[in-house]
Design goal:
- The protein has eight helices and eleven strands.
- With about 280 residues, it is α/β, with parallel strands linked by helices.
- It has two domains: about 90 residues, Beta Barrel (Elongation Factor Tu (Ef-tu), domain 3), CATH 2.40.30; about 150 residues, Rossmann fold.
- It has a six-stranded antiparallel sheet. The protein has a five-stranded parallel sheet with strand order 9-8-7-10-11, sandwiched between helices.
- The structure holds flavin-adenine dinucleotide.
- The site of flavin-adenine dinucleotide has 25 residues, from β4, β5 and β11.
């Protein structure tokens, strides 16, 4: 007689809502098969500076938390917290996180930190924000913060992705910023959004580092070349982008800053590892 086929025992449901630092998901938007954004509730006690990151997570099959660093994409004044995420195939966290829906819960640890904050920069006139891929997340926070327009005359956000739809979240954030009653008027006057792709056909193509070195980037927007006396910058992308942009800025005479010692530019990794394209 055939042996009865053994069915695996159903996994016990993990009640995330009752875990410490659980926040309710209020909104989810999938931008393409590789990218999504979501918003969660924010307790009044949760303070952060625009541009910082936190650890967020979900329990794995064994109930243990899988926590990863995430930039907060919403500004410090927002009533909710917004995040922008990659979907890494078989990624321990994002293979789960990509399935969240409004009403679900995500763990958001309340200890924000990071170097992409306005306090880490010396005063200046132009602020350049260099992002690739999900590296736009901290800048999505900063461009919606009125402080950036109080401190700088011009804010130049550059976003480079492999695919055309990889630019969509950034374009939507910029649209929302320009329409925002709090920062819209100043942003319309001071914010410049530069977009480019490296793989798919798009009006502007190429790595930002190549576009800077060739001068095409400055020419396209009628911008003067870097001037260390007045320009400040933030970089958030792959290790490669970060290293190459640092070299370009250092050649132009800008010096790296930090929270404890403000400088001309600051840099942060958008992720650890090789990176996957989106
Ligand atoms: P992991 O095991 O963490 O990653 C697997 C591999 O996927 C990595 O080795 C890398 O090659 C690649 N990868 C991971 N993240 C990315 C990415 N964002 N873009 C391209 N390739 C990637 N991720 C976000 O999606 N949004 C953020 O705002 C964000 N902020 C971060 C801030 C900091 C300071 C750091 C260090 C990382 C940040 N990350 C962010 C990356 C994030 O922490 C996780 O790595 C990512 O969510 C994937 O988690 P995972 O467990 O599924 O896979």
């Amino acid at each position: 007689m055939d042996k009865p086929v053994e069915q695996p025992a159903p996994k016990p449901e993990i009640d995330i809502a009752s875990m410490p630092d659980a926040r309710e998901v209020t909104e989810v938007h999938h931008w393409n098969p590789r990218l999504f954004s979501f918003r969660v509730t924010r307790p009044r006690s949760f303070r952060f500076r625009s541009g910082e990151f936190v650890m967020i997570g979900l329990p794995g099959d064994d109930g243990r938390l899988i926590l990863r660093a995430y930039s907060i994409a919403s500004p410090a004044w927002d009533e909710e917290l917004e995040f922008y995420s990659i979907k890494v195939p078989d990624g321990p966290l994002t293979s789960r996180l990509q399935h969240i829906r409004p009403g679900d819960h995500v763990i958001v640890r309340p200890k924000p930190t990071g170097t992409l904050v306005l306090d880490a920069l010396k005063p200046g006139r132009r602020l350049f924000l260099f992002a690739t891929g999900t590296g736009i997340a901290p800048f999505a926070s900063l461009i919606r913060d009125p402080e950036i327009y109080e401190k700088f005359d011009r804010v130049i956000l550059t976003h480079t992705t492999r695919t055309v739809t990889g630019l969509d979240y950034g374009k939507d954030v910029v649209r929302r910023t320009l329409e925002d009653p709090l920062v819209g008027e100043e942003a319309r006057e001071k914010l410049l959004h530069d977009t480019a792709t490296t793989r798919e056909d798009y009006p502007v193509m190429g790595r930002i580092t190549d576009r800077i070195r060739s001068g095409a980037f400055f020419e396209q927007h009628a911008l003067a070349p870097f001037d260390a006396a007045e320009d400040r910058a933030m970089i958030c992308g792959s290790m490669g982008l970060n290293m190459d942009m640092k070299a370009i800025l250092e050649e132009a005479g800008l010096e790296e800053g930090s929270n404890s010692c403000p400088g001309d530019y600051v840099v942060e990794k958008a992720f650890v590892g090789e990176g996957i394209g989106a």
